[in-house]
Amino acid sequence: MPKVASAHGVGTREQQSYGTLGATTYTVYSYAEVQRVVAALESGEVVLDPFWRSDTEEGARGARRDALTTCGCVVLMIAVVIAIALLSS
């Protein structure tokens, strides 16, 4: 989302929220500028990069790559936990 927003001139700012587990940072988008980009998308003035869309082959390929990367990270974390358990016993 931040890439799409910045590519189309939507202003953003970072805000922090504080809780018992620490600070959480999140992005706030300018409502008026988002509405302007939505209207431009609906009228066809603005076209999104195919990599940013989930209904294109490029976007689907990126989603699959992200899913495989996530699975790989999970498998690696499990392997590390097993290795630590085996080495500590």
Automatic annotation (TrEMBL):
The chain crosses the membrane at residues 67-87. Keywords: Membrane, Transmembrane, Transmembrane helix. The keyword Membrane applies. This is Tat pathway signal sequence domain protein. It comes from Streptomyces turgidiscabies (strain Car8).
